[in-house]
Design a protein that fits this description.
Length: about 100
């Protein structure tokens, strides 16, 4: 095994990132911004971007402690949305691992 010296200028960003002093700029974007980026890069279709928009609404409801389950019908809608979200995430992970 050959070990090569790594210039210090390459180590600084890694060290800062590990200490959370140089976070990835993507961490400062909202979920809606990330959806727009994925759509703009054509990483998702328009239909998928729309589904992600629904995920963003769900995120907002949960994050802002909105009353998103007021009755049994609301519970069914919430559970269906969670199921669709899980399916979408599973598919997105599968595509990230498998070549298209």
């Amino acid at each position: 095994m050959i070990l090569r010296a790594v210039p210090a200028r390459h180590l600084l960003p890694v060290a800062l990132s590990e200490q959370r002093l140089n976070p990835n700029l993507l961490e400062f974007t909202y979920l809606s911004d990330k959806i727009n980026i994925l759509s703009g890069l054509k990483s998702v279709t328009n239909a998928e971007a729309k589904k992600l928009g629904g995920l963003n609404e769900l995120r907002n409801q949960v994050a802002h402690n909105r009353n998103y389950v007021a009755d049994l019908n609301g519970l069914h809608k919430f559970l269906e949305r969670m199921r669709r979200t899980r399916t979408f995430v599973d598919e997105f992970e599968r595509r990230a691992v498998s070549p298209m």
